[in-house]
Amino acid sequence: MKNIFELDSRSISLEIGEGLIKAVVAETLKGRKHITRLISEPVSGQDQDAVAEGVRKVFLSLGFIPQRVLMNIPRHLVTARFLKIPSVDDREIDKIIKIESIKHLPYTDEEVIYGYRVIEKSEDGYSKVLLVIAQASVVNDFLDILKKASVSGVKLFALSSEALYSWYALSRDAEDKGSVMLVNLDSNRIDIDVIEGDKLVFTRGAAYNANDPERIEKMTRQIEISISTYRKESALDVSRIILTGSKREAARYSPVLSEGLKLPVDVIDQARNIPIDEDIKAPMAEASFAELLGLALRSDGIKINLLSEDAVEDARIANTKNALIAAILLTALLATLVVGVLIKKIRDRYVYLASISAELKKMEPNIAAAKKMMKDVNVTRQIMERRPLAVDVFTEACGITPAGMSLSTLDFESARSLTIRGTAPALGDVLRYVTILENSPYFEGVKVKYANKRMSENKEITDFEINALLTALK
């Protein structure tokens, strides 16, 4: 029983970098998290098989199976935009962000994964949002490596900027006044955040060759560009720079930045104010663990999850499958126990009668759980067999279309979904139409695939495509 509780209380934060795999193990004890291990595993090759072998070595060295795996994705592998959204309603923000996410990269909706963090909501009805977009192929490459390494239980694909922000919230002694630039230095990359009070308001990242003799000058230039860009976007100046990460890199950058930028430059040890077990041999001189420490200790503060919907669904199916297997094993075990009890009853009716009653009473919750699971499976099968008629779907869609909107195509796909294409006077009309469709008993999971503005007869109109799943008939 002790091992079961240990599994539930431990997690691993993982970063798969070029030539190096880093991991941080965290354990929750009496409601408080602390770091029990720091792992640094070099990788001999760059192909997926070599990297997967390195990941496998990391997990074999743990000595236990973590139930929660948290991945850290470096900032330079994604695209980030700070947007001003004309809404403070969470549902409207989600819909607008969905549309915005496909505008910033030359890829289709299926080729990108996005997440966002609401920075603040203003009284004027606007929200400032950090939108992060990743190519699905980048995330899927990480998932393929984990799959080859036989790693499961991945719960989160976090952006390194948010993880670094979480680390800073733990390591600082008091809230800084003004705008602080936080720079995380690793052996072959750099992450830059700007923090205003308790808000993450700017982020930038870059990778470089660790053997490049000009890397200090190049990365210093990246910091200069970040300061200039932040000043243009916010009209504010950076009050000071905080360096953390690799001790070797921090020692090289600190004097260069202080002299070149004419700003206060402080170096904070990445283990500062972090609950790390005393017996840990920390490999922090060459590599940065700051982001992984923040992710491990404050994962509940991470708002952006770049785990794909397909991966989330696969995890859900795997959990359901495990639950069904457990139910089958439980039923088989129950049957074995009952047969054994009956045999004993025949051998000695009076001696084992009390034992039978006690055992059956203990099994009642498990039997009820198994019956409920079987009932849920039957109900789900019945629901899946119900399908609406195409004529009813078309009638409903046309009947609830607001005046002023024009529909050009109704595409009924295998009695599972409906694609609607047409034009509307404005984007707001498209969003209201989505709300009308969601309120209809025929539709659910309504999504805007695109909404593009154009001029027609000296008027601006919006072409749109909406996809809606069909609700099973009752």
List the helices and strands and how they pair.
Layout: H1 2-9, E1 10-17, E2 20-29, E3 32-42, H2 48-60, E4 68-73, E5 79-85, H3 90-101, E6 112-121, E7 127-135, H4 136-148, E8 154-159, H5 160-171, E9 179-185, E10 189-196, E11 199-207, H6 215-234, E12 238-245, H7 247-261, E13 265-267, H8 290-297, H9 309-347, H10 349-385, H11 390-399, E14 406-413, E15 417-424, H12 427-439, E16 443-456, E17 459-470
Parallel strand pairs: 1-4, 4-8, 9-12, 12-13
Antiparallel strand pairs: 1-2, 2-3, 5-7, 6-7, 9-10, 10-11, 14-15, 15-17, 16-17
Detailed description of the structure:
It is a single chain. The chain is of the alpha+beta class. It has helices spanning 2-9, 48-60, 90-101, 136-148, 160-171, 215-234, 247-261, 290-297, 309-347, 349-385, 390-399, 427-439; strands spanning 10-17, 20-29, 32-42, 68-73, 79-85, 112-121, 127-135, 154-159, 179-185, 189-196, 199-207, 238-245, 265-267, 406-413, 417-424, 443-456, 459-470. The protein has a 5-stranded mixed sheet. The two termini are 45 Å apart. The model is unreliable at 1-8 (pLDDT under 50).
